[in-house]
Specification:
This protein has 88 residues and is mainly beta. Helix content is 0%, strand content 52%. It is built from no helices and seven strands. The protein has a four-stranded antiparallel β-sheet with strand order 4-5-2-7, with no helix packed on it. The termini are far apart. The mean pLDDT is 90.
Length: 88
């Protein structure tokens, strides 16, 4: 039987100009699979995951914040991935 996990990510914009969109990427270390997400569009190919802003939360003013969350399933180990954030 597979196990479930719940993740939440807060994005804090430290730049000096507003963003139009943002993307967060990570690579799972095991067989984790995103099953649901909110406040982001998620896509997964193998162990690589991309979470992209929605139309309503991509624009972040300097020092602005937003968050998204997801649910995933896995079996075996569940090590935390390293996240990479980009904005445009």
């Amino acid at each position: 039987m597979g196990q479930r996990l719940h993740g939440r990510c807060h994005r804090h914009h430290t730049g000096s100009t507003a963003t139009k969109s943002w993307t967060v990427t990570w690579t799972w270390g095991g067989n984790q699979q995103v099953t649901n997400s909110w406040n982001a569009t998620t896509a997964q190919s193998g162990s690589a995951v991309t979470a992209a802003s929605q139309t309503y939360n991509g624009a972040l003013a300097p020092n602005g914040t937003t968050s998204f969350g997801f649910q995933a399933s896995y079996s075996g180990g569940n090590t935390a991935p390293t996240l990479t954030c980009t904005a445009s």
